[in-house]
Structure formats: structure tokens, C-alpha cells
Amino acid sequence: MSPPVVGVLAIQGDFEAHARALRDVGGEPRIVRTPEDLDGLDGLVIPGGESSTMTLGIEREGLAEPLRELARSGRPVLGTCAGLIMLDREHLGLLDVTARRNAFGRQLHSFETDLDLDGLGPLRAVFIRAPWVEEAGGDVEVLADVDGHPVAVRQGNILAVAFHPELTDNRTLHQWLLAHAGVAS
Ligand code: GLN
Predict the structure, then answer these.
(1) Which residue has the higher pLDDT, 119 or 1?
(2) For this structure, is 65 an active site residue?
(3) What's the pLDDT score for residue 183?
(4) Which helix (H) or strand (E) covers residue 151, if one does?
(5) Atom number in ligand 1 closest to CA 53
(6) Cβ pair 133, 147 in contact under 8 A
(7) Catalytic residue chosen out of the listed positions 61, 91, 166, 174
(8) Whether 149 is catalytic
(9) How confident is residue 182, by pLDDT bands cut at 50, 70 and 90?
(10) Complete domains list, the chain, with CATH
């Protein structure tokens, strides 16, 4: 069987580290910059970076609607940090949450902590000017929080975290993507 092909949105941000993580778990990463790059994908990563720059790039390339179609087809999507912001109500509208940008404030630009994600297990989480989920709808499952603020959520086939799983050796979230790739037609 050929490995699942998982796209990594590469408008901007740390897409290379995600591509490596996907290879580590037996996936075949594909850099996504245009709507055509989404053809035939089994899943998608929206990486961290700068959400305002990503928004402009998505607009410029006409990627918003094709990205929504991919997510709505049931294929797994993992959004990390700015990727979580891109999935929220005010951006792609694929997750029923409102994200708050740079939520941890200036003093906590960047920090690490141990989290235990419901159903996914423990991992070390690296936060870099991270958002948190300010408000979430009833269909959204909160998998982990920091001081009561949700930082890992799942809604159906979409998993979003406020931290950077690609910066540690833990591959749980990329494994989740591969495990769910191929479930949709
Ligand atoms: N602060 C960035 C934003 O608001 C997100 C940071 C990140 O992805 N590491 O878009």
C-alpha cells in the first residue's frame, strides 16, 4: 500500500518540521501552495507561523474554499498554533471556536509545559506566542487546557492545538493524522 499523502500548507511558517514529522510516522508529505496541490490528499496540516500573513496568502492563492472542501470531506486536518487560528470562526470557519491570538501575553511569549491530551496521552508542549481558545461551541471537545484555557480541541476530523508538536520528538498528533487518513472517499 502506498503511504498516505498529507499536505502541509506552506504559505508561511514552520512547514518543513511538519513534513519531517509526517515522514517519521510513515506519511508522504506534500507542500501545499495552490489549490491544485490539494488534489488527492489524504489529510492536511496547517502549521504555525503568522496568522495575518497566512490569511493574506490564502486569499491571494484562492485557497480558502478548496481548504474548506477538503476539511468537509472528512479527511483529517491538524492545525497548530497559527493553524488553530486559521481554523476558527473568524478565519476559515471550520472549527466552532474563537481563538485569541497571543493570548498568553508578552511575559509568556514562549514556554514549555507537560500536557495530557484526552484520548491522545501525555506530551511536552512548546508554546510560541500562542493563542488559546476563548470560546467553543457544544460540538467541540476540549482535550487539554493551560490554567483553564483550552489549548487542544477536536471537532470531528479536525484537531487543533495552540502549541508546536513538530518541535519535539513526540509524534502522537502526526500519528493521529495518519490513523485517520484514508477514512474518507
Ligand atoms: N502569534 C502568531 C499569530 O497570531 C501565532 C504564533 C505561532 O504560530 N507560533 O498568528
Answers:
(1) 119
(2) no
(3) 56
(4) strand 149-155
(5) 10
(6) no
(7) 166
(8) no
(9) confident
(10) 5-180 (3.40.50.880)
